[in-house]
Each structure stands twice: as C-alpha cells, then as structure tokens.
Design brief:
Helix content: 10-25%
Structural class: mainly beta
Order of helices and strands: HHEEEEEEEHE
Shape: globular
Mean pLDDT: 80
Oligomer: single chain
Low-confidence stretches: 27-39
Strand content: 35-45%
Radius of gyration: 29 Å
C-alpha cells in the first residue's frame, strides 16, 4: 500500500522543526464576504413630562413602545420605528413613526428634540404631526410641547 501524499505532508509538518514551520508560506487571511449590516441610528429613550395646558402628560419611549398622550388626544402605547435622526449643530432630532396606532391617535409622527445652548443648558421639545406626509411637507398641523426629562 502506497502512502497518500496528503498523509506524508501532514507527517512532515508535524515533525518539522519550529523554525521550518515558521518559514512556510501561510495562506492569505480570509476576509468575510458578508457585508456588515448598516448601523442603525441610536434611539433616544426616556420619560419626559410635557408642560403647559395642551402638553401636560408624559412622553415615554422604551426600546419597543412609544406612549404620548397629550390631554386632548389620549393614545395608548404603540410600537414605533425610528424614521430618521437629524443632527444640526447642538440640536438633535429623533423622528419616531407610530406603527399600528389606532385612528383615534392624532399624532402618528412624534419628534423628540434635544437642544444644548452655549451655556450647556439642555432643553427638550416634542412635536406631533398627523402623518409622515405632513411632517415632510412641514405642515403647520402639529403640536409643539416643551418637555422636562424625568429620568
């Protein structure tokens, strides 16, 4: 029976001195062919309290649910997607779109805005739009509420 060339090569590699193994050509490192998924914008989570007559109430954003019920439009918590995240200077906006919210929920798009002024004072605001179309058209049918971050 004749020994196979692969078996001989394996035996040679196992018995070869370390210096000889180190000089042996190494196969090129394999690079993954699977593209990494695009990075998702980071969510801004938290509990915020609205101020003023039309804005009192809580805005709660958890990893899976958004709940915002201004006094004149109570709406149950619903799932959401982060449609967009914008940064302009010291102002950041997170544009959340409710998914599966009932028709009774007037504000289907909720924008959370964080602004930091030169004296390092942070202010928060929420804007409510009736639809993504109204938001993109910069419609004047919206609610603007100053907020206080509670957590």
């Amino acid at each position: 029976m004749k020994p196979s060339p692969r078996l001989l090569l394996l035996a040679l590699l196992l018995c070869a001195p370390a210096a000889a193994r180190d000089r042996a050509p190494h196969p090129p490192a394999r690079t993954p062919t699977v593209a990494s998924p695009p990075s998702r914008p980071r969510l801004q989570l938290g509990v915020f309290e609205g101020t003023g007559r039309a804005c009192s109430g809580l805005l709660k954003i958890t990893p899976k649910r958004l709940s915002w019920s201004p006094p004149f439009n109570p709406c149950p918590p619903s799932a959401f997607t982060l449609a967009e995240r914008r940064q302009e200077g010291a102002t950041t906006q997170w544009i959340y779109q409710r998914v599966g919210a009932p028709k009774s929920c007037l504000y289907k798009v909720v924008i959370l805005e964080k602004a930091v002024d030169p004296s390092d004072t942070t202010s928060w605001s929420a804007y409510g739009f009736t639809s993504m179309k109204a938001y993109k058209a910069n419609s004047n049918v919206w609610l603007n509420c100053p907020l206080v971050k509670l957590d």
